[in-house]
């Protein structure tokens, strides 16, 4: 997907999710997982396989599937729309941001996407 615009031939990333990506711990499947979520569980090739999350109401730690992956050049509004069309139980789970090879770059929080989408209007 191309950058959201160009200025003098240079890409502008203002409307992409790149600036919203938050760092996240990663753990290879089979390794001992860190005690504090969020954590992305990755396979032997660095691909995201699951998320270790914490319920904000109960602090209970649970494993969730990776239900949405996006590239850092993905438009903020597109990422938010895709996230909000997931099933209800997964709708507000973080979105995994990956590079072209599928390696994890970080997580996108739905709150951050919504705030950025509103500002871009």
UniProtKB/TrEMBL annotation:
Cited Pfam families: CBS
Domain CBS: 69-117
Domain of life: Bacteria
Protein name, as recorded: CBS domain-containing protein
């Amino acid at each position: 997907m191309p950058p959201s615009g160009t200025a003098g031939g240079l890409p502008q990333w203002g409307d992409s999710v790149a600036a919203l990506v938050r760092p996240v711990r990663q753990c290879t499947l089979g390794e001992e997982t860190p005690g504090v979520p969020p954590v992305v569980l990755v396979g032997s090739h660095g691909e995201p396989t699951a998320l270790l999350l914490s319920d904000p109401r109960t602090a209970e730690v649970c494993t969730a599937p990776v239900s949405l992956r996006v590239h850092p050049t993905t438009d903020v509004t597109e990422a938010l729309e895709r996230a909000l069309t997931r099933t209800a139980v997964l709708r507000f789970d973080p979105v995994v941001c990956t590079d072209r090879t599928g390696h994890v770059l970080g997580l996108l929080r739905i709150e951050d996407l919504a705030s950025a989408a509103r500002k871009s209007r």
